[in-house]
Amino acid sequence: MTTPGMDHLDALEAQSIYILREAFARLKKLALLWSLGKDSNVMIWLARKAFFGRVPFPAMHVDTGKKFPEMYAFRDQYSKEWDLDLILEYCPGIESVDPTLPPAARSAARKTEGLKLALAKHGFDGLIAGIRRDEEATRAKERVFSPRGLEGGWDVRDQPPEFWDQFNASPPPGSHLRIHPILHWTEADIWAYTKRENIPIIPLYLSQNGKRYRSLGDADITNPVQSSASNIDEILIELDGTKVPERAGRALDHETEDAFERLRVAGYL
Amino acid sequence: MNLVVPTPSPSSSLATPNGTTRPQVRIVIVGHVDHGKSTLVGRLLHETGSLPDGKLEMLKEVSARRGMPFEWSFLLDALQTERDQGITIDTTQISFRTHSRDVVLIDAPGHAEFLRNMITGASQADAAVLIIDALEGVRDQTRRHGYLLHLLGIKQVAVVVNKMDRVEFSEARFTEINDEISAHLIELGVTPTAVIPISARDGDGVAERTQNIAWYKGPTVVEALDALTPARPLDELPLRLPVQAIYKFDDRRIVAGRIESGQLKAGDEIVIMPAGKIAKIKTVEGWPVTPVSGPQSAGRSVGITLDRELFIERGDVIAHTDAAPRDTRRIQARIFWLHHQPLSVGANILVRLGTRETRANVVAIEKAVDPGELASVAAKSIARNHVGEITIALLHPVAADPYLDNPRTGRLVIEVDGRIAGGGLVMKIEGGQRGTVDIVPVESALRPEDRAARYRHNGAVLWFTGLPGAGKSTLAVALERRLFNRGGSPILLDGDTLRAGLNGDLGFSPKDRSENIRRLAEVATHLARNGHIAIVAAVSPSLEDRAAARRIADTLFREIYVATPAEICESRDPKGHYAKARAGTLKGFTGIGNDYQPPAASELTIDTATRPVAEAIDEIELMLAKSGVLIEDLVDLAANI
User: Fold this and answer.
1) Chain-chain contact of B299 with A10 (C-beta, under 8 angstroms)
2) Are A30 and A125 in a shared domain?
3) In chain B, which residues have pLDDT < 50?
4) What's the total number of domains in chain A?
5) Which of B39, B105, B568, B624 yields a CA-CA distance of 20 to 30 A from B482?
């Protein structure tokens, strides 16, 4: 909804704030999943706007232990600077996940296991996650408030209807909700907003020696793309012309056609 | 269909290069499947210069290569395919520009989806284009679509008579169709804004009045779209700020919410609805900069502080004092139903209107429509994917607007078992209390909560209806004992007993019987409002009288139909009435004729011929627990029955 005086980014921001406030009003025990990437940083920024400078729930980093050093440095600096109630949880070893998944998906599935353990430990009834519809085809089917089963699983076919910004916020006992406040944003929106609001970013997103990361995951399964974009303006220009999907550098998306969907059904973000 | 046609500037932007705002109209194109919808859309995109560069040439080339004639409808297919591959997934519309309007086309794949999309769409269509094939003329589906437009309250309809080339551009044929469809639409209360002869394939009448239709003097399709009246922009409507939460993170007490319509700024005098408390906006808070200066308009998520400490909670609506929404506990809504279990009269539901949630009861279903048939069906319940009109009684007052006044605060969703099960538009708000204004009722000093805490039940009217001898009094007395034993406050109102006193002036004419029921209902409701469970046992043979009783008791009403078969009732004949009636010595007796009208949708039905009394009482107790009368978890009891 846009009215005079509001631009595209204002409208996105207002919608995300509305979602965050609905989650905070209707759920008892919330946490925000902080992956340290550009999307979840925007999300934290939006939460600070929604709650007037203070994030009133913990930010949880489920750590695979295999992130880039720059990401850990970023986490340590900004969790203090932004006064976050930081929860660190660690993923179990690779032997704990489905051995039939392709290698990179197995690696990502560790994160799902880590999430499940964290959920069981803290008893959250809502997890705020920074996924976007334009990232990946199965995420396009997502709801803003998305119920998860006891095992964290996602039943694509049995999603309750969601319209008019009225959300299904009553998870059955023992299950939880994923809340997606930036589901309606695009990659370009994230960058344009990051620039406008002057939100700090990890330098890996900017070009060095002709390459940059468009999306940040575990260091061993994330590859940089060819790029000369050394600041956000150049990233936006680059995105305008590209036909390469954002997650092209994320190995797990490309192993088998259904690997990503299988991960999501099991509870991956 | 989810796609957006790239236009020189993004479709969400309404600004023209010189900074003025172009009015936006939202339209829907309806008509028989083969009458040329896609062709018209393709042609319109072309005629209004809304296609990306080279797209048309490319498609023509592809058609030529495949050895097939180019069709305008290919354009839509091609755009759809692009959409499937990627980017613009969350837009649900095609936009194009006429001379002075931005037109947003809401597309409609199938019937059920169509109706749901129409009602749930970001906002409803402002206007419709109804398309008719000149050769085939007005078909059943054309009429059904006319009815649909009526149902959705769309008042601006342009009719296009397509494929005029196939009737040699005959003025006589056009006039014939024009007369038929105009008569049909006018009967439905819709006057067409234009009826236009066109050939979408060749372009006649779309953007130009060609030689072929030289006899036609009216507007072209593009001109007709240009003349549509757009909906009022949200920020020009009265202020509505539904409260999401109150934050006290520091010494500020911030009222947070999103402005659904209108504008606000510091210093504004506001009223908090439904309570009607007045205050002034002290500041508009923000982050990282605060306070925020200047007016904030519809769409913004804001936080404000007030000049005084008032009780205010999530679900309240902030408005300007001179243009407040109504407060009501009774709403008429046009709804669509998505739950596998049909919605019935008496259903206990949860209603969400803005940020307010309240329990509610479906008091009446005025209309139920199957969108596949587009015909009204028996209005007892509304099935999945059907639409209808219902009256809802709300447990708590809400602030609301009719949908036609405010599309944002005039819509609600219905939840069943914690899941959204339907949605609807507020058609009518019934305000205030019944009765005359110069009677000022004296309120009890005790609050209903006080009594509920003591009795462990809320007030209710339990209405036992059934033939004489069916077992109403037996059940009523047994239930009274059961409720009393659990510490409750049941009060028995037996029809015959009250006829000896309060209703001693009444006989058995239909009029007197109605009055008898009305008094019973009024007394019972008074008791129920004061926290007691009023148990009414009365034959009450008339459906209409019982409906009146339900209206009086509203959400407190629970109907229990004692459905013991007539021959068993007669064989029991506890008061000897059946024998007297058979002998002809008792006039106006209900039972041996067929003047008893059984309920269609009672809360509970009990046949005492097959059910022992204790079991029947268990069942009633369970119903009372489930419908929120008894406060206590009776689920375990239910498992043991």
Assistant:
1) yes
2) yes
3) 1-20, 83-92, 109-110, 121-123, 432-441, 633-641
4) 2
5) B568
Domain at B24-226, CATH from 3.40.50.300, 3.40.50.11260, 1.20.1250.20, 1.10.20.10: 3.40.50.300
Question: Distance between terminal CA atoms of chain B?
Answer: 51
Indicate the fold that domain B326-431 takes in CATH.
Elongation Factor Tu (Ef-tu); domain 3 (2.40.30)
Tell me how far apart the alpha carbons of residues B537 and B495 are, in angstroms, rounded to a whole number. 6
Catalytic residue chosen out of the listed positions B11, B38, B540, B602: B540
Quote the domain boundaries for residue A250. 201-254
Scanning every residue of chain B, which has its alpha carbon at the shortest distance from the alpha carbon of A16? B301
Establish whether B297 is a catalytic residue: no
Across chain A, what does the average pLDDT equal?
Answer: 86
Do A174 and A222 belong together in one domain? Answer: no
Query: Cα distance from A171 to chain B (closest Cα, Å)?
Result: 8
Residue A45 lies in a domain: yes
Look at residue B517 in the predicted model and tell me its pLDDT: 92
pLDDT number for residue A16? 97
Option in B89, B120, B299 nearest A133 (CB): B89
- Determine the topology of domain B234-320 in CATH: Elongation Factor Tu (Ef-tu); domain 3 (2.40.30)
Question: CATH second-level architecture of B448-640?
Answer: 3-Layer(aba) Sandwich (3.40)
CA distance A35 to chain B (A): 23
Position A96 in a domain:
yes
Integer Cα distance of B138 and B143 in angstroms: 7
Same domain, A101 and A213: no
A-contacting residues of B 529-568, CB under 8 Å? none
Residues of B in contact with A164 (CB under 8 A): 120, 411, 413, 423
> To 10 degrees, what angle do helices B140-151 and B171-187 make?
40
Q: Judge whether B326-431 and B448-640 match in fold.
A: no
Res. A96: pLDDT tops 50: yes
Place of tokens 């109209």: B25
Report whether B95 belongs to an annotated binding site.
no
Pick the residue of A10, A30, A52, A142 with the most B CBs within 10 A to test the interface with B by mutation. Answer: A52
* Residue B376 near residue B365, CB atoms below 8 Å: no
- Ramachandran region, residue B127 (left: φ > 0; alpha: ψ -120 to 50; beta: rest): beta
Predicted confidence (pLDDT) per residue in B333-381, tens digit: 988 888 889 999 988 899 999 999 999 999 999 988 876 665 666 678 9
Chain B positions in Cβ-Cβ contact with residue A15 (cut-off 8 Å):
301
Taking a contact as any Cβ pair under 8 Å apart, which residues of chain B between 382 and 411 contact chain A?
Answer: 411
Print the SS3 string covering chain A: CCCCCCCHHHHHHHHHHHHHHHHHHHCCCEEEECCCCHHHHHHHHHHHHHCCCCCCCCEEEEECCCCCHHHHHHHHHHHHHCCCCEEEEECCCHHHCCCCCCHHHHHHHHHHHHHHHHHHHHCCCEEECCCCCCCCHHHHHCCCEEEECCCCCCCHHHCCCCECCECCCCCCCCCEEEECCCCCCCHHHHHHHHHHHCCCCCHHHCCECCEECCCCCCHHHECCEECCCCCHHHHHHHHHHCCCCHHHHEHHHHCCCCHHHHHHHCCCC
- pLDDT of residue A151 exceeding 70: no
- Does residue A193 carry a pLDDT above 60? yes
State pLDDT tens for residues B193-210.
999 999 999 999 999 999
What is the tens place of the pLDDT at every residue in A113-145? 888 889 889 999 999 999 987 776 666 667 899
Q: Does A6 touch chain B (CB under 8 A)?
A: yes
Nearest residue on chain B to A187, alpha-carbon basis: B87
Tell me what ipTM this predicted complex has. 0.90
Confidence band for A254, pLDDT divided at 50, 70 and 90: low
Q: In 3-state terms, what secondary structure has residue B27?
A: strand
